[in-house]
Specification:
Elements lengths: L6 E9 L5 H14 L7 E5 L15 E7 L2 H9 L1 H10 L3 E10 L3
Antiparallel strand pairs: 1-3, 1-4, 2-3
Helix pairs in contact: 1-3
């Protein structure tokens, strides 16, 4: 059984210029660098899957999933210099960001 303390941080990015390959590359590089934040247990960088159902939103360009052992580790991530650097150097790349955080419900 997974720990109830796990904190899941899922972020979706819509690029300001989704047709620019260099913006895709820059955000991907930024997310890879962000993965080195020490409080992250696991991470996943994704792009929309080729599934096609009415309930699926494929309008974003990247998703970022980070798993933390607890809320305190996620709080540390928010102020980690690598996270602050990512936001400062990559924020010009996106027009929208949506964050979905969750914790265990069991």
């Amino acid at each position: 059984m997974l720990s109830q303390d796990l904190f899941i941080h899922h972020v979706y990015f819509w690029l300001a210029y989704p047709d620019k390959p260099e913006d895709h590359a820059a955000l991907l590089a930024g997310l890879k660098a962000l993965s080195k934040v020490p409080s992250i247990q696991q991470f996943h960088i994704g792009v929309p899957a080729s599934t096609n159902r009415d309930v699926i939103d494929t309008s974003y360009q990247f998703s970022w999933l980070a798993i933390f052992p607890n809320k305190e580790a996620q709080d540390a991530y928010q102020v980690d210099p690598l996270h602050l650097h990512f936001v400062e150097t990559c924020k010009h790349l996106w027009k929208e960001v949506k964050v979905l955080d969750s914790i265990g419900a069991y």
